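Exercise 4. Each item below gives a protein and its sequence. For each, produce the structure-token representation.

Item: Protein translocase subunit SecA (Chloropicon primus).
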Amino acid sequence: MAASRRVRGSGGGVWGSGGAGRWDGRGLKTPIWKRFLGRRNDLRGLENTVRTINDLEDGMKLLSNAELRAKTEEFKQRLEEGEGLDSILPEAFAVVREASSRVLGLRHFDVQLLGGMVLHKGEIAEMQTGEGKTLVSTLPAYLNALGGKGVQVVTVNDYLARRDAEWMGQLHRFLGLSVDVIQGDSTQSERKRAYGADITYVTNSELGFDYLRDNMVLDASELVLQRELNFAIIDEVDSVLIDEGRNPLLISYTPEREDGLYHEASRIASLLVREEHFTSDAKEKTVELTEGGMEAVEALLGVEQLWEGGSEWGRYILDALKAKEHFHRDVHYIVRDNQIQIIDEFTGRVKPRSRWSDGIHQAVEAKEGLEVQGDQMVAASITYQCFFKMYNKLSGMTGTAATESEEFWETYGLRVVPIPTNKYCIREDTPSLIYPSEGSKWEGVANEVAERHSIGQPVLVGTTSVGHSELLSRWLSGVGIPHSLLNAKPANAAQEAEIISQAGRFGAVTISTNMAGRGTDILLGGNPYEMVRIVLLQNLCSALMKSETCPDFSGLSEIINIEIPPELLGLMARAKASAMSECGPSLTLNEVEQLVIELCNFARQILGGGEEQSLALVESKNFSALESLLGTMELPASQQSLPTTALQKFANAAVFLYSYCGEVCSREGDLVRELGGLHVVGTQLHDSRRIDNQLRGRAGRQGDPGSTIFILSLQDDLLKIHGGDKTASLMTAILDETTGVTSRLLDSQLLTLQRSVEEWYTGIRKQVYKYDQFLDIQRNQIYRLRKHILTSSADELMHLIFTYIRADVAEAVERNVAGHPKQWDISKVCEDVERSLNEEGILQPQCPAAIQRDLSSGSWKRTKEHRFPTTGSYLFAYQAAAQKLELGRVEAAGERRKRSPVSQKWSPEANFVVNELTERVLTEYFLQVRSAATSRRGMSDILSDQRYLMLELVDKRWQKHLKHMSSLRNSVSLRVFGQLDPLEEYKVDSAKALLYLVNSIQREIIRDLFSALR
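Answer:
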């Protein structure tokens, strides 16, 4: 075995809640703390707060449950009286720590208090795997929820959101806060209720889509985000803000069905040969037809020109070639239910409701012989970069953020603060083992797994694709090594948490794509909570659900692989019999799952709470006595769905089952530690060191032993796509033809290569963000207008309509008056107004003459003076938008001024004309509204119709604008050939597009409102 290096935990110290060599907050027994602060100025000064929290601990222990819960109302009152969150932080953290000890059986370590303070400050806490980030989040979540503005704890998948809401939610509810969770299948009413809670657990995608959907509703009652975006804590923040930060969330629709062009293009692409007919760049994911390729395609299609004469065949052919060359089944996507489902390259999970844009998804559908969905039109979009910056305060947690600290600061203004580990990290990282070919590499991986499995050491193998994971699975099955497979395939992904939770068992072998299962701890010896949950789920479902609706749990039984003693089986059988006799099969699967989770939490609380009487009964295996004792306790909240007697028996069984599983896991854990802990095998380096570090971090949690090795080949994507000839030749010279080689020189070369790739991707993300900033400003402008229309009162809505009418009239005056007022052709102005409104005859025939007479006689001076308005509404100041876009010098800002012939000298006269015409148009408009209300329905219904019409028009215009901006984004890149800066060109043209959008919305709203009243 190659030499290995031992990795020490950040800070190099041992941290905890007292004891030899630890810091207990009252006195320093080791100089590590001071040395750490000397290097990490970000934590300087927080040690005093930790000491203060620890000093409060003894007092908190003396409080009853009711007194501890009453602290929440006390804190809220103090905040209302003007005290700040920072002032009550020490006491609030002490309350949470004590409540956690009582409810969860978990006490926050001192380093977890540090992590909580960093999160409260609106920064990123970098905490290693297994350091208890989920528990850390309860501290700032509780503190910031006291203000009543809401806190969102953001996770990367539905399972983690539900798990954390149910687990940590016990703590928050105990303290009197409301907690809720949002899932992919949550209804609109459930989402509204959840966002109204003090603390909401939700995935980043659901949160982003809810924001977009809120900006598409046509009735204010349908809004689910009722409050401002106050404070978010993002778990796995690097995954959300970096990995997914550049990919926009899109809500799209299909305007019309697509024809057979994609299928025909796919057929032709399959006949074309790389280098002869086209060139392909795997790094940039581009293709380009050669001259011979263009001729071949034109011949196959029977067309003279591929790109000219309005032909779109060129685009279809290129999309088909990209689908063929750069988008591979079981690597980038899977086919499920005759649908293409995208695999997230960073997590290995399927990305629900996601589609590639620019025709790629349709091209892949055609390649797979599926029905092609029509080209998608974007109805709403936003990137996570833009969305999360709208929060008043943002923070995040992850084990791997340091490599991206500069990007976090430059893009989000978030500092990365490394938090010291609670115990030493003693994981051993072995240098990479490199093979010359793909085949020899996989043989080396299989041998490594077999060698470790032969002594019972648990092994976790990380692969980068579904295909590779299944390749290794077939080999292991062939040699008789039992294993669990976790990838994006539905059958495997459904058991993600269960598979990962037992990956630390003696003899376990787990194959996982990328970091599927991230967020679930791998405990050496196994996870007793998950074992108990699965056993209870099997028994409760069979007792409380109809047999035809009860799921098949045979796969889960194989995962936990535990033999239950006869006496515990007897307890479970009696509980089942009681449940079946008292209520029978009456519950749904969701109700059973909720009850199981509450029973598991209850059992964990009993065993971890330190209650001597119940622990003594468990230790002596006095089943009946404990059951009687449980009858005096507050049982899980789901007791209404199950009779008390049956619930009592299940609670009794759960406690003893949890105790037994805990003993099994503890024994196996000791054995696994002697074998070296979890062994992690990586099978390909990622483009980012951070993703590789996430895989390494699964081993060696909380001071446990562990080891890692990466087994690679020269044919891996990193080397093949990014390595270049120099790297390949260096490695080829060193490598043996059949055996793997370890070398510090090779590791150094690989590290340098990864850094260069990281810089390349960082540059792409920065460039994308620069472009997105302009669209973000425009999106905010439109959404503010839309929200005003949606939520305004009747008077406010009328005021907006009146403002738009006046602005429309002002535009007509500007277009048609010049010189001395006596020379103005008011008839021409009136015709322009009527044409603009599409309302011929709306101005009475005598109107021009009357205004002309007032101008000539000077009687207009007796009217009240008004400022001559600029184009656009008060909500939509173009100048403000242009200033944000740094466009003060842009020609667009001066176009209207140059067009206007009205000098400052005659602006009072022009203002008079605007006022007179506006008054006449408004009078006619109001008469039509009143007439419609009388002849059809009431005034409120008319106003509702107008609100609906305005929202629909804003949405349609915004969708067209998004399409235009997308085309503009693609076209400006070509201007570099004209020695122009594409970003500057985009800045100028996007400002012009915004001005056009605003003016067109204004004009068309008034025109459509008049039309609807006819």
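Check: The chain is about 55% helix and 10% strand.
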